[in-house]
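Much of what follows relies on a compact textual record of a protein's fold. Each token is a code from a learned vocabulary of local backbone shapes. The record below shows the convention in full.
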Amino acid sequence: MTRAPIFAAVLLALAACSPSGSGSGPAPTVQVTGAICRPTPVGRQMTGCYLTLTAAADDRLTAAESPAANLVQIHESRIEGGMMMMRELRDGLALPAGQAVALEPGGNHLMLLGVKEPLVAGDTVALTLTFASSAPVEVTATVGQPAAAGADAAPAAH
């Protein structure tokens, strides 16, 4: 009969250490800094947003959304044949554990498509970032001109 309390204590200890689907344990986290979106060019309904993501564990940015736009896509920009090309990263963006991943002009970025109202410097934009493992993160980006990444200055539309 003295085994029952020991067995119960072991079960409680194991339950405290194991991951739980109930959300009682800490979920992996992603830290977001420096969120900024460019003002929308006159007559255009798209713009780019930039930020830095640091995941506590290996993760992936899988989606983003904003009430300010009909659609938000994760994009990469790269030089192909001497021209700047942009494409959607349909599988999202890898976030290696502990490494800061910058979304910046001339590189990876969030593309707001179908912007509902013109974005003007000084405004803010709400973004919700969704990850493969971590809980979604709500971000408030300022509207302004981001610093150019190195010598690459992206066109005003991004």
Q: What stands out?
A: The two ends are 71 Å apart (CA to CA). The CA atoms of residues 31 and 112 lie 21 Å apart. The helical segments are 3-17. The longest strand covers residues 69-80.
